[in-house]
UniProtKB/TrEMBL annotation:
Domain FAD/NAD(P)-binding: 151-458
KW NADP (keyword) present: yes
Keywords from the UniProt entry: 4Fe-4S, Iron, Iron-sulfur, Metal-binding, NADP, Oxidoreductase
Domain Dihydroprymidine dehydrogenase span(s) in chain numbering: 26-136
Pfam families per record: Fer4_20, Pyr_redox_2
Gene Ontology molecular function, alphabetical: 4 iron, 4 sulfur cluster binding; metal ion binding; oxidoreductase activity
UniProt entry tagged with the keyword Oxidoreductase: yes
Protein name as catalogued: NAD(P)-dependent oxidoreductase
Cofactor: [4Fe-4S] cluster
Length: 481
């Protein structure tokens, strides 16, 4: 009987939740997609082909049991669908909103490749978990048994919080240290509200705290507390700081006022959304209102910046990217949304310098063409000689990616080994660093990546840390005998 509710991709077309009109969504920071109604969620879930080798699951970093919770949704068994969904994913309501499904699960859907249009996996995932919150199925963590051992986690982003959740469920005492005044990392301050409304993140933070996880905020490790103090307080330490150091641009005029970092721009906007007073926004330094904005970069952060600038009332917003549309690293869905909202993409262009005496007035742009493939197989951009021009700008936002801070130096830990890229060197399986009892996960290990990969790393680290503490405890017990 259950099977009859599935395999309906032949007679039921793909149908995303309604998208708010571009003119309406330009005026605020609310999420742009409406919620599925129950009947629509069941209908779209029923399109799943329940294939024997689910590529959607294989290409999900968390290996979510996607066909199973799609089938349960189609059958109206939503609470069971939620239980299956959250068994492998600490934050399914967040992944449903911000994962680039077009590059991961949906992009590898079997029926998509057969020409029927992918199952709307992300929208159904969001619907399942939002319903779970509304129905009270999401409960605070209640460990079956408390344990005396404690774990200190540095960084309250998705990796750190995922690890905290899993360790707390095992009964460990967990303390999370973070430099910001709110937990969530980039989910709170880096991702705009039109992709992830902040009450969704704050609700999850509150659930973690209610479950017994201690959040120590406004705490800068190396200044407010030393790394050694954290080590002494806990049986194990997890480093999950992420990467926050922006890649810089050179060239003439690179130091002019009005050239800002993407994260500073996005953080100011998100703080405004919380109702905070942001002097840099009020002064106009990090405010796009009435300005000609140029964003440099082609990833998801660049997409967040251009769409934020539109909402702040920029007179024009252009995005410069050195390759073409087909070779852009950002989500194609996000590019489409940005274009609908009025962003102009200037493909095959790269900044060469900046004009202006004190404040930037323009970007000197080189036109590019794609040449021979590099070591990764991607065509390398080459400058076209004599094709330079100036793009007028009052605000230039650098969205060129992020690099790790020098943690061994900042924390006075020369024994903390790093790679040649500056990321922390950690064992692939155990997540252990060169310092015994200290583990590391997420972007600070793998470099700037996706939230879903940080969640995966955090969950894996929790398993490794629990095994490490158990081994230490067993060793101490044997020694005592």
């Amino acid at each position: 009987m259950a099977q009859q509710r599935m395999l309906r991709f032949i007679d039921v077309a793909r149908d995303m939740p309604d998208k708010r009109p571009a003119d309406a969504r330009r005026a605020d920071f609310h999420e742009i997609y409406a919620e599925y109604a129950d009947a629509k969620a069941k209908e779209q879930a029923s399109r799943c082909s329940q294939c024997g080798v689910p590529y959607c699951q294989t290409h999900c970093p968390l290996h979510n049991n996607i066909p199973d919770w799609l089938r349960l949704t189609a059958e109206g068994r939503l609470q069971e669908a939620y239980e299956i969904s959250q068994a492998t994913n600490t934050f399914p309501e967040i992944c449903g909103r911000i994962c680039p499904q077009d590059r991961l699960c949906e992009g590898n859907c079997v029926i998509e490749q057969s020409g029927h249009g992918t199952v709307t996996i992300g929208a159904v995932e969001k619907y399942i978990t939002d319903t779970a919150w509304e129905e009270g199925w999401v409960q605070p963590i209640r460990p079956a048994q408390e344990r005396p051992e404690s774990v200190g986690i540095i960084g309250a982003g998705p990796g750190g919080l995922a690890a905290a959740d899993m360790l707390r469920r095992r009964g460990f005492q967990v303390t999370v240290y973070d430099r910001y005044d709110r937990a969530g990392g980039l989910m709170t301050y880096g991702i705009p509200g039109f992709k992830l409304e902040k009450d969704v993140v704050m609700r999850r933070n509150a659930q973690l705290e209610e479950g017994g996880i201690e959040l120590v905020l406004n705490c800068n490790v190396g200044e407010d507390i030393s790394f050694e103090e954290i080590r002494e307080k806990h049986d194990a330490v997890l480093i999950a700081t992420g990467v926050y150091k922006s890649r810089e641009l050179g060239g003439p005029g690179a130091g002019l006022k009005g050239i800002v970092r993407a994260l500073d721009f996005l953080t100011a906007s998100n703080r405004r959304g919380f109702g905070d007073t942001v002097p840099e926004f009020e002064s106009g330094e990090l405010n796009a209102e009435g300005k000609r904005v140029v964003v440099i970069g082609g990833g998801d952060t660049a997409m967040d910046c251009v769409r934020t600038a539109i909402r702040e009332g920029a007179t024009s917003v252009k995005c410069l990217y050195r390759r073409d549309r087909a070779n852009m690293p950002g989500s194609q869905r996000e590019v489409e949304n940005a274009e609908e909202e009025g962003v102009e993409f200037v493909w095959l262009t790269a900044p060469k310098g900046f004009t202006g005496s004190d404040h930037v007035t323009g970007v000197r742009v080189s036109k590019m063409r794609l040449g021979a493939p590099d070591a990764t197989g991607r065509q390398s951009p080459e400058e076209i000689e004599g094709a330079d021009y100036t793009e007028d700008a009052d605000l230039v936002i650098k969205a060129l990616g992020f690099e790790p801070e020098d943690l061994p130096k900042l924390w006075g830990q020369p024994g903390l080994e790093v790679t040649r890229w500056g990321t922390i060197k950690a064992d692939f399986a155990s997540k252990q660093t060169s310092i015994p009892g200290v583990f590391a996960v997420g972007d600070i290990v793998r470099g700037a990546s996706l939230v879903v990969w940080a969640i995966r790393d955090g969950r894996d680290a929790a398993e490794a840390i629990a095994a490490h503490i158990d081994a230490q405890k067993k060793g101490a017990s044997v020694a005592a005998e």
